[in-house]
Every structure is written in C-alpha cells, then in structure tokens.
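Example complex used in Figure S2.
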Amino acid sequence: MSLVYQLLVILAALVVLAELLSEKSIKFKLQAALVLIPLVLRALKIA
Amino acid sequence: MELNRQHLSNRNLNLVLLAIVVIVCLYVTPGYLAMRRPEALRKGPGVTRIAHLSEWFEGIKGTAGDTDVYILDSGKPGGSALILGGTHANEPAGYMAAILMLENAVPAQGRLYIIPHANASALTYTDPMEGVPREFTLQAASGKRVFRHGSRATSPMNQWPDPDIYVHASSGQQLSGSETRNLNRAYPGRADGNFTEMIAYAITSLIRKDSIDITIDLHEAAPEYPVINAIVAHERAMPTASGAILNLEIEGVVMGLEPSPASLRGLSHRELGDSTATLALLMESPNATQGRLRGRTDEALILTGKDSQYVRGQKLGRLFVPYDEKGWPLHLRVARHVGGLQAIFAAHAMTAPERAIVLGGVPTYDELATKRLEPFL
Ligand SMILES: [Zn+2]
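Predicted assembly (424 residues):
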C-alpha cells in the first residue's frame, strides 16, 4: 500500500474523529463512530 | 451549571463511542490478520522441494506476491509441467485441485511444478459488499482442514490506486481500471511494472528458465459465463487439448474446447503461449459463489454449489452449464480439474513421448466423484 494512500486514510480518519467530537447530535456522533471503524482498520493496514 | 452537566455528558458519550470503535477494531483484527497467514499445506510424498516464486524474479522477494512453488521431480528424464491454482483466489476448485495434486501426486517420469496460490495477495482479503466467506472447512482424512477463500484480484493494500483504464503493457489493450490487479490480464508481465505485473513476470520467468513444456492455469467461472466446463488452449496447445478432451470423453466427462482468442490479451493461455515455448492451457469449472445470480453466499454454497436461483436461471435458459437441485459440488469441480490435468498429460505423452509427464498417486475423476475430496487431503 502506498504511503500516500495511508496518509490520505489517516487524514480522513482524523476529520471523522474531529466530527465525532464536535458533533452535538447523538445520531450523527454514532454515524461518525461507524465511519471511523473501517478508516482506523485501513490506516493501521489491518483490513 | 446546566451547561456544565451537558458538557460532561457529551464528553462521556464521546468516550463511550471511542471505546466502541476501539473494541470493534480489536474484535475484528485477528480475523483480518489470519487471512494473511500462509495456509498449512501437507507436503505430499512426491514433493522434492518447496521453492519461492521470487527465486525466478527477485523483485517480488519479501512481498505479498511471493508464493510457494512445489516441485515434484521424478529424477527421471521427461517433460515438465506447471500447474497454476489461485490465479483468482475466489475460484476454489482451481486451487483445491492444485493442492490435491501437490499432496498426492508422485511423478514417475518428468517434473511437476505446482503453485497453489499464484496470486497470494488475492487470498488475503475478500471482496467488500459481496458477503463471501473467508474460509471453508473439510473433515479430511488427515484431520480438520480449513481452506482460505479470497478475491479475484490483488489486494488494494498491495497495489493502489487503480487507474481509470488499465492499459495492457505489451499490446496497448484497454480494460476497466480494476483489471489492473487481475493476474490473468497481466501476462507476460513486466519486471518494472505494477505489483501484479511483477507476479506475472515471475511466473513467465519460471516457465522460461526451467523450460516448462505445459502450463495449465486452473479457474472457475460463473454458471452464466459462456466459457465454462472447458479447456481454453493456445493454438500450439490445440493438439494436446483435443487429445485430452477425447481422453476425458472415454471417462464419461464432457469438456468443451475453446481456442484462445488472439485478440484477448494479458491472459495466461494467450501470452504464455506467445512469449514462451510452453503449451498454454486453462480450465474452467462452474462456480455459483462467484456468479451474479446467486442467493445466500455461505460456506455451503462453496461446498455444494446448490442454489435455487441458479436452478431458476437454468429453467429460463440463461446458463451455459446444466444446473439442477444437485448443484455443482466442489468435489465434482475439482474432479473435473484433476481428471483434466491427467488427460492433458496423457495426451501430451502421446504427441511427445520423450517429454512425457507421468504421475502416480493421483485419484481419478471417478474416485473423486464418488469418494469426494476428504480421503485425499
Ligand atoms: Zn478465473
């Protein structure tokens, strides 16, 4: 996996994490958490 | 005061959600990592050496594309053959036939090379959104065996990004971008090409350096795909293929013969025949698990091939193989491949006796059809 790809995934994960923390609505927080899971797995080269 | 409490509960909620993320990640990680562990195969009585594919091309050494090459050398003069399984890691009859051969075959004449997982990277993941199982289990004679089930193409973890259009290097043929990771569109491969092209190049180098007489690439196809239950042969391999089909006919196995189209580039039966001296052949068997009409996709579908939607498809005349309630079980698909291989070797021995490959220890089509795979694994 190219480094560029990994950096992009890490960036996306950070954006979603920031969204999770700043979001007020519980529904949107939960959505952000769900989106975060595959991004974390990909950033760590697990899945 | 009110605001403070809200702030606190928000923080607690954040922590709970992040904890859930961590727990889910930890829970699924072992399953994903297990897909990268090399499969434990039994070294058959005929195996004289287990090599790495990188021996023939250094460029893939230490990568997910390096894969085991089982060499079964009779020590007696004769020809040499290469069996490729797992070019597409979602076509289990292909690699199970290769595994069955390496665990059972004992060559009496000539040399046999077997690569059970030609695209090892494709075995490390499954296609997203397809709901395909990662593995299937057989209660084999040697104990419980778990075999991996992967994807059609190289993992995007090993090769990224896909271009919009894949241009086949030596012909300029254009295909959809995802085919960039398809080993069977990458031949003859390039030493300085992409990851998949390098795997193809390593296989081509093996064929050249070790003067492989016959190469057989084992595949499966969806029942709605026209090239199925057939041998696809390069024009130089046509006499061998037609001889093999007659041999199979005697055993009561009906196999079609398809000439390798000259305009379809990057495929093993075209490029290996064109760019090396090998006789290039490919075999297809029917696999519902990779089809678009399939219903529930589980281990049972891999093993039995029973699918009510394919029975319906057959009744509507949409399929290229007969399909009834009995399905197309894995052991029959493997039996076709193993019977096909032996028929090809027999036909080759007729046309080139001094380059014959004679194998003992291999179950016949009938034995596999009646006793199934378990006694031989
Ligand atoms: Zn295939």
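The two ends of chain A are 12 Å apart (CA to CA). Chain A has a mean pLDDT of 92.
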